[in-house]
Amino acid sequence: MKKLIFWSLLILLDLVALEAAFRGYFYLTDGKSYAAEDLADIPSATMLTTQNERPKWMKNYLLHPYFGYVAPKIENNEQSHGFSSKSDPLVAEPAAFSILLTGGSVAQQIGRFGNLETRFRAALKTAGHTNRKVKVFNAATGGYKQPQQLQVLSYFLALSGRFDLVINLDGFNEIVLPALNFQRSGQHPAFPRQWSNVVGEVSLDRRLLDGEITYLRQEQAKWITIAKEPVIGWSAIAGHFLRNQILEDEERIQELFETSFEIASGYSLEAKGPPIAFETDTQLYDYSADLWVRSSITMHRLARSFGIDYVHILQPNQYVEGSKPWSRKEQERFRSAAAIYAPYATVGYPALINRQTDITAAGVPFGDATTLFQSEKRTVYRDACCHLNKLGIATLADYVVQQSIGHLSKDENARQ
After folding, report:
1. Other residues' Cβ atoms within 10 Å of the Cβ of residue 360
2. Highest CATH level, class, for 65-192+308-415
3. Is the pLDDT of residue 14 over 60?
């Protein structure tokens, strides 16, 4: 019994001495006494992630294998393939005059708030074309640019979609976003908006790295929780071994971060598209304009091969010089030279305007809406990008209808 007490006391004294030694070690290395709470400060304070930051505009969007992305979260519209319409374009309505609307967010606005079905029905009836019900499928989506509209048309035609008219209202995204994305990340002009950022989230290599980092973060959290337990939390001995484990995990995490960033900064076909270079900005804008022209001509030929009318309209924009007498509100708030898109639209739009003759020369019905507001002194824009207020939407919607009616095939009545 005496031996047991002796050895117990000896072990206890050794532990006390060892505890004191470790506490002295902590004080010498950290400059303060040991506290279990300090272990929580070891993991990176920012809790970095290997993934690129998802663009804010993507929060309501989901990836799509052919279009890049769609927006089913906006209106719970899975039945419309993720687009803004309430219906499925593949559900035929033989008695209806069916219209497919494509483009970016301005076209999407017109489709959602421009009362196109009512305007078209009245205009068709007045023009003596048809008295049928009008159905507009709004496939225009914020950020879409060619060749996404072309992909949308070919996809729905391949799935037996039936349309009488295709309206493509675009231009701003086609000339602004390619330049912006290329200059920032080297992304190919034909790839979807900020694709290099979006794909960073689904890259297999980066997901594997992110998975390992997540696991190690969980391990660190476990060690920190253990360190706060009674008795263990008091002991600098336990704290020493727990800290070493946390530090070991942290060192590995930082290695994984570096590897992830190397992947993100390097070339990736899935994220940035085929490598391409431009010696001047002019070449970049010309390339984007060429892509816009070819995509529209291809949409027209594809539509006509199915007996569908096609109309292409270049959307208006406040950075087109001389396009409108600016209201005070527009001049002060919506035409800022500091706006992120301003320099790209100012330099790029002339490239589109100059190329419209190539589109019409190919037999494509085309309308230039950049001059639509030349006599409108009231405010029609609502932000420093490209979007319109109620007056602007109504005016552009009327223009879209007029241009479309004017270009309908003479055999429209035969298609009733």
Report:
1. 12
2. alpha beta
3. no
Q: Whose CA is closest to 408, among 126, 217, 21?
A: 126
Give the angle subtended at the CA of 87 by the CAs of 86 and 93, to the nearest 5°: 145
Q: Which helix (H) or strand (E) holds 104?
A: none
Query: What is d(CA 11, CA 242) in angstroms, rounded to the nearest whole number?
Result: 22
- The candidate with the shortest Cα–Cα distance to 99, out of 132, 52, 64, is 132
User: For the stretch 249-279, what's the b/e string if a residue is b when 16 or more beta carbons lie within 10 angstroms of its beta carbon?
Assistant: bbeebeebbeebeebbeeebeebbbeeeebe
Q: What is the pLDDT of residue 51?
A: 43
Q: What angle do CA 69, 74, 75 make, to 5 degrees?
A: 120
Q: Which residues, 6 or more positions from 123, have their beta carbon under 8 angstroms from its beta carbon?
A: 401, 402, 405
**C-beta of residue 367 within 8 angstroms of C-beta of residue 314:** yes
Query: Which token pair is 196?
Result: 């290099």
User: Is residue 313 a contact partner of residue 399, using CB atoms and an 8 Å limit?
Assistant: yes
The residue type of 92 is: A
C-beta of residue 402 within 8 angstroms of C-beta of residue 120: no
Residue 206, φ and ψ in degrees, nearest 5 = -75, -30
The dihedral through the CA atoms of 373, 375, 380, 384 has a sign that is: positive
Beta-carbon contacts of residue 179 (< 8 Å; ≥ 6 apart)? 189, 281, 284, 285, 288, 344, 348
Query: For the segment 254-308, what is each residue's pLDDT rounded down to a tens digit?
Result: 787 777 666 655 667 888 889 999 999 999 999 999 999 999 999 999 999 999 9
What is residue 216's predicted lDDT score, i.e. its pLDDT? 85
CA dist 409 and 130 (Å) reads 12
Q: 156 to each of 148, 253, 305, how far by Cα in Å?
A: 12, 45, 14
Rg of the chain on CA atoms, in Å: 31
Query: Counting every residue, how long is the chain?
Result: 416
State pLDDT tens for residues 324-373: 999 999 998 899 877 889 999 999 999 999 999 999 999 999 999 999 99
In this predicted model, what pLDDT tens digit does every residue of 31-87 receive, in sequence order?
Answer: 556 565 665 555 543 333 344 455 666 777 888 999 999 976 655 556 788 888 877
Cα separation, 193 vs 187, in Å, equals: 9
Number of other residues whose CB lies within 10 A of the CB of residue 374:
11
